[in-house]
Design a protein that fits this description.
about 300 residues, six-stranded mixed β-sheet, 4 helices, 12 strands
């Protein structure tokens, strides 16, 4: 959902000028990034006999910029909520990086990675000029935390309706994250999204189409997570279910965190990924509840 924080309305500068080399470099800039595994084909193992399925726990969590249901910023509380999921890969939404006073100008992606001992990749939706000449750029977007090596990462564009201009029009904008993770020799594509919050589904429908085009270019297991701002039965999400499946059909509601009434935080997977279990987790560390899923990746043995 749209953050309850008020965001200043100002022109979005430089977003369209984001270049892939800048975005890919972000995965290397996180202090806790371990040395990546040797580069290899990103679509799985080598031909041969079937090997046992590889377990992978994946979660999605809209962290509300580190503020809980009490509207108090407390990134330690956020970190504890994430740690309790015991997930291998977590997709985060509403992540601030030097954004403003509401989150103490903290680089939340880097800070959470440090607290949890994980690798991180941050994909800004908004990349604004700093407040002063000595300040950092103000960024807001989605992130991936991973216990496994990140082999590649990219910040894709999908249709956006900016919250940073007074009269926005739908246009391509960044903030659809993709990472390729090496899970004990099995390589999976993990995507993190945050879809438009408005009642009119037009922009979300365009975003679904854009995301499917990105996914169609990749081979191997695919896992798409995020805050979809729509329930699985929404018409604008229907095209997703032609290529992916909901990992928690019939699962519990996720928004708002207290007495939730909507299931809008989803983990979805390609047909070659087995879902073992899924559940939403009650916590007051955000205005959303996280969803955690136990998956199995299938690969050929070496």
């Amino acid at each position: 959902m749209k953050s309850r924080f008020r965001r200043p309305v100002r022109a979005l500068r430089g977003v369209r000028a984001l270049r892939a080399h800048r975005v890919r470099a972000a995965v290397l800039a996180t202090a806790l990034l371990a040395v990546a595994a040797p580069a290899s084909a990103l679509d799985g193992g080598t031909p041969g006999s079937r090997a046992p399925a590889v377990p992978l726990r994946v979660a999605t969590y809209n962290i509300h910029a580190g503020a809980g249901t009490d509207q108090v910023f407390d990134l330690d509380r956020t970190a504890e909520a994430v740690r309790a999921l015991r997930a291998d890969v977590i997709g985060l939404q509403e992540v601030d990086v030097h954004w403003g006073a509401r989150s103490d100008f903290v680089d939340e992606a880097r800070a959470l990675a440090g607290k949890l001992g994980m690798r991180a990749y941050f994909a800004p939706i908004y990349d604004l000029d700093p407040v002063g000449p000595e300040d950092e750029r103000r960024q807001y977007g989605v992130a991936v935390l991973s216990r496994h090596p990140i082999l590649a990462a990219e910040n894709h564009e999908i249709t956006r309706l900016s919250t940073q201009t007074s009269e926005p029009v739908p246009a391509p904008g960044p903030g659809f994250a993709e990472v390729t993770v090496d899970v004990k020799g099995s390589h999976a594509h993990v995507y993190v999204t945050h879809l438009d919050y408005r009642a009119d589904p037009t922009v979300r429908a365009a975003q679904v189409s854009d995301m499917l085009k990105v996914l169609s270019a990749d081979r191997g297991p695919k896992i798409l997570v995020g805050d979809f701002n729509a329930e699985p039965t929404a018409p604008e999400l229907a095209p997703l279910w032609q290529k992916l499946r909901d990992a928690a059909p019939g699962g519990g509601a996720t928004y708002p965190a207290v007495d939730p009434v909507k299931r809008i935080d989803l983990v979805t997977v390609s047909p070659d990924v087995t879902v073992v279990g899924a559940r939403e987790v009650a916590t007051d560390a955000s205005d959303h509840r996280p969803v955690v899923t136990d998956l199995r990746l299938h690969r050929r043995g070496r």
